[in-house]
TrEMBL record:
Record InterPro entries: Leu-rich_rpt, Leu-rich_rpt_typical-subtyp, LRR_dom_sf, SLRP
Record keywords: Leucine-rich repeat, Repeat, Signal
Name of the protein in its database record: Leucine rich immune protein (Coil-less)
Keyword Repeat: yes
Amino acid sequence: MVILRGKILQSLLILWILMQTGPLPCRCQCEEEGFYYCGIGQVNMTSDGAAKLRKLIDTLNEWTTIAIEKLIVSNSASGPFLQRIAPLTEQITFAAYRDPVFQIPEGNTIGEFDINGSGKLRSIVAGSTSHVQLLFVEDCLLDRLPPTLPKLEALQALSLTQCALTTVRLDMLAANLKLTYVDLSRNQIRQLIPVTSPPQQTSAIASLILTANRLERLDMAIFAFLPALQMLDVRSNRIVHLDATASVTYRSLERLLLSANLITTFDTRNITLLKLSTLTVDDNALTDIPTHWGTIPNLRVLGFDTNYLTRIDMSVFRSFPTLQGIYISGNRIQSIRTSSPVVLPMLELLIFEDNLITSVNLTGCDFANVTIMSFINNSLTTVPPVFQRLPKVRLSLLSNPLKCSNLASFKNRIADDRLHVSEDSDYAPCRTTSSISLGRNVTGCCNT
């Protein structure tokens, strides 16, 4: 516990101590001991607390966590207190900080702050310092980015999670030139306000995490001021529309995470993504495969699992000659075909599991290097005619209502391990109306 302003507040202060010379602390100094851990109970900074810590640290010769169960300070566990404790540590973690204000004093030399606000922290006030590199805050009442953030000149990583942010001004992030990692997940963000003028210096932000907020539209043009952006994570929002209101090129973006939204409109015509290799728009509300695509020259994997798709026209993938895998499972797809010829020379995987597929026609599709095609748990009654067109393919049709008369003509494909179908066994008996012998004591499940 920490005593602040006469009130007892549940809190825990953990200090990561620099390596010192000398023997490890003895049990008389640590009330609890563990691997690189020392729990010392109460420290009273209004009397001999600082001397007690100093004496303990002087006995350490390894990086050690010192856990203070009860910290007594004259006013606050931030501000002047941090100046007193700074010579003893480089990192401080507050497991339950309950003061409404956290003050980082000017000239502070501590490099990392981890603050669990316990739902009380409302404000962070920072003085100018060139030492703070990491600032992590969780469970707080902050409703905006702290205005004094730019004073943390060396800040590299910022995490404000499970707080009360509703609007984020992106120019606030551009002000910290060494900032590379930003996590604003689990807030209530509804609006991202674009930068009002081009930053005078280039932002270094490489990762921007906005997971589990309340965004309803994603305009990709607003991140144009982040040339170093490698990952944008907007999973678990309420995004309905994704587009770009102006032409924008991302030269570094490799990961764009969009799952668990409500996307019905997906238009990337104004977007160039030079390094993006994987794009999965899973768990959204698309009823058709998007047709308005920008330039994505290195796309390897494309996925639309768990949407509301009912049909697939393979010609839409013509824009991505480097595709290696297509994943479209958990939809309501009934048919797969192509309206015009399409060549995908690098394609290896086609996964269409857990749909309602009754018809597959790949006439016009040149997928010579496809090795795996899966239609597990669909409604196919006949084996799709793919073996001549796809010479390397291994086809999986488990949990499909195949007709026995059709299945019987593919025994050689099954024997050659080119076709996998449901087989009768003690632990997984056939659920079909009949079965046939496939040879080698194998019985295939099928319908008459």
